[in-house]
Design brief:
Elements lengths: L4 E6 L5 E6 L5 H7 L18 E6 L7 H13 L2 E3 L9 E5 L16 H5 L8 E7 L12 H9 L9 H13 L3 E7 L2 E7 L7 E7 L3 E8 L5 E8 L9 H8 L3 H26 L6 E8 L1 H8 L19 E4 L12 E4 L9 H10 L8 E5 L3 E8 L2 E8 L19 E7 L3 E5 L7 E2 L1 H14 L18 H4 L2 E2 L6 E5 L10 E4 H25 L8 E5 L8 H6 L11 E3 L3 H11 L1 H13 L1 E2 L8 H9 L16
Parallel strand pairs: 1-5, 9-12, 12-14, 15-24, 17-26, 18-20, 24-25
Antiparallel strand pairs: 1-2, 3-4, 3-5, 6-7, 7-8, 9-10, 10-11, 13-14, 15-16, 16-17, 18-19, 21-22, 22-23
Helix pairs in contact: 9-14, 12-16, 14-15
Bound molecules: FE2/S2 (inorganic) cluster.
């Protein structure tokens, strides 16, 4: 056998094992030859994702159909492959068992126990009562098992009882001579169990985002978090961003069913995982609060989202929704009630409502802004008694789409850029660069502005410009619309080509950041709030965690405030869901707030074009621009 190629296995810790192997051998077989363990649950049939690897360097054959099905187009595009399906055709480096969570950027959970409970009235609405009910004995007294239970507990049943509960009732009541625990939610019976189980009262909060789904298992009495779970939204195989997901489901109920099945499966899996982690029986989960953008909300409920994507972008329902988990096919939690937080407007969804609850912006004496940067950015601004909201269609550029070398925040993505006399890029996982993610794009643009490579007009400088240091000038190529700036030369990258930012990429960034900034500017204008009047700008959502706020200010993605006024509030949407889980007062508050918040439709405003053009521009650079060298 002619072992003429080198396959190098790299672990997450950076340990490298080069192996000589024959062209055409699968990655999995090469690993087995040298006793490197690779999970292959399905027996190398391409059906389990267990053998997922990330190609760090070198060329690989085109993906197989199994790669496409198991990993989805985004991961395949970013160099992920199934080791059992991929054969070596050139010297290659691969990372074994790369993280599942976007390969580097963590999926964010909710808040800690203290912040979740701070200043809120505890009371989940779930009650467990241990009672001894009378077992009907006397023929002369007309009674029934359920009537005796209601008498013993004083429960005010107003809704229908579940058929499963009625079926098990005769045996449960008689097993310990009527000694039962009755669980109710807002007075309605959810379950009846033999003996005393009052200690076990749990609930889960979920944030179903376009990119990721995360959940949190809480003790309903104490508010303590018992487990936290998260994963990439498995719907992403049908489209990475919100609009492509919506397009997939529009006017096609079959596709809607596919998307819904993936969401339900993911949530069911996370419930199981969280219960195993915390050693909790899923039957003891009684309340689930779910937030998500309007499209995810509708898809989760199986409601056709077609019209959310078409003017006037109206949802089918804005009010809070409450229904038994069994009606949603969440079979793992037969006794739970699922509560969806309300929606403010088409693109200001239940996730925004969760963030509003969590940040307490509605209680603020001073004017604050809450900004969630995403494909569809959301801006909420105001103070106690007056809140306004708008959504800003930024498009997927900040998620790496529509950018020549753009990619999500996965291993190998440039996430930080430093420019002085030359360029230094940091990548996620310190892997050779294979592209640039949104936070890297913002950092790159800010530093290119500061160094003069990029002009305030948005034009890349000419490579002959003598004002630039020679090393920077050498990285410029082309002119006009074809101009580009090399961030990482081919020999240092994980691809066989230079990683560049093109003039068109800069244009896409301007459109995306202009959309978000115009949302902020518009609300400032309508509410007559100057920059000085803004006490704080809170950044929410997964993306906000990774951007360098100084760079975001330097390119006018965010309002030019002193950096200490810009704070990051984490996954506020999930934290709001957790609050509504442990406090019915908060859940009901959300209903009232959703109706009070004034929604501004940007596109319908006559002055939007002017504001958008202003927001797309870059500021003139000053030598003291606060671009932090260390990143956020
Ligand atoms: S071993 Fe299951 S997908 Fe490769």
């Amino acid at each position: 056998m002619d072992n003429n190629l080198t396959l190098t296995f790299v672990t997450a810790d950076g340990d490298r094992t080069p192996v000589k192997t024959e062209s055409g051998t699968s990655f999995l077989d090469s690993a087995r030859e040298v006793d490197i363990d690779v999970v292959a649950t399905c027996g190398a049939r391409g059906k389990c994702r267990g053998c997922r690897v990330k190609v760090l360097k070198g060329s690989v054959a085109p993906p197989t159909i199994m790669d496409e099905v198991q990993l989805g187009p985004d991961e395949v595009h970013e160099g992920f492959r199934l080791a059992c399906q991929t054969r070596i055709i050139a010297d290659t480096e691969i990372m074994l068992a790369p993280p599942q969570t976007e390969g580097g950027h963590q999926i964010l959970g909710g808040g800690d126990d203290a912040s979740r409970r701070a200043g809120i009235e505890m009371g989940s609405g779930v009650e467990k009562n241990f009672v001894t009910a009378v077992i009907p004995m006397d023929e002369h007294v007309q009674s029934s098992d359920i009537e005796e239970i209601l008498t013993a507990t004083g429960a005010s049943q107003s809704g229908p009882l579940s058929p499963d509960l009625l079926r098990k009732l005769p045996a449960v009541l008689r097993k310990k001579k009527g000694a039962v625990t009755v669980t109710t939610f807002n007075g309605n019976i959810l379950d009846i169990e033999v003996g005393d189980t009052t200690e076990h009262k749990y609930g889960m909060a979920f944030d179903i985002g376009t990119t990721s789904i995360c959940g949190s298992l809480l003790d309903l009495d104490t508010g303590e978090q018992l487990a936290s779970v998260g994963e990439i939204n498995p719907q992403s195989v049908y489209g990475g961003d919100l609009m492509s997901r919506l397009a997939f489901a529009q006017f096609d109920l079959g596709n809607l069913r596919k998307l819904r099945a993936r969401a339900i499966q993911a949530v069911s899996g996370q419930i199981k995982e969280a219960c195993e982690k915390a050693d909790v029986a899923p039957e003891h989960i009684y309340k689930v609060v779910v937030v998500g953008n309007t499209a995810m909300h509708h898809i989760f409920l199986g409601i056709d989202p077609t019209y959310i994507g078409l003017a006037p972008y109206s949802p089918s329902i804005r009010d809070a929704v409450e229904m038994p988990a069994r009606d949603l096919m969440l079979k793992t939690i037969p006794n739970a009630t699922v509560c969806m937080l309300p929606i403010v407007a088409g693109f200001v969804g239940a996730d925004a409502m969760g963030a509003i609850l969590a940040t307490r912006i509605f209680e603020s004496e001073e004017i604050r802004a809450l900004v969630d940067i995403g494909t569809n950015g959301e801006v909420i601004m105001g103070r106690k008694g007056k809140l306004m909201a708008c959504s800003a269609p930024a498009g997927p550029a900040l998620e790496g789409a529509q950018i020549k070398h753009g990619m999500r925040g996965a291993i190998g993505a440039i996430e930080k850029v430093y420019i002085d006399d030359d360029v230094i890029c940091e990548t996620i996982g310190n892997a050779p660069a294979t592209g640039i993610c949104g936070s890297g794009l913002i950092d790159a643009a800010a530093n290119m502005l500061k160094s003069g490579v990029l002009q305030a007009s948005g034009r890349l400088r000419n490579k002959d410009d003598e004002s630039l240091p020679p090393a920077l000038a050498a990285r410029l190529s082309g002119s006009g619309g074809k101009a580009a700036f090399i961030l990482v030369y081919a020999e240092d990258s994980g691809k066989d080509e230079d990683i560049t930012l093109t003039q068109e990429d800069i244009r896409q960034l301007q459109l995306a950041k202009g959309a978000i900034y115009s949302g902020i500017l518009m609300l400032q204008r309508i509410m007559e709030v100057s920059d000085e009047d803004l006490a704080e700008l809170q950044l929410a959502g997964g993306f906000g965690n990774y951007i360098n706020t100084a760079s975001a200010v330097a390119i006018h993605l965010l309002t030019p405030l002193p950096l200490e006024k810009i704070t990051y509030v984490g996954n506020a949407a999930l934290m709001g869901a957790e609050m509504a889980l442990i406090s019915e007062t908060e859940r009901k508050r959300a209903d009232g707030l959703a109706k009070e918040i004034e929604h501004v439709s940007l596109a319908a405003r006559m002055d939007f074009q002017d504001i958008f053009i202003e927001a797309m521009g870059f500021p003139e650079t000053k030598t003291d621009d606060p671009i932090a060298k260390t990143g956020t």
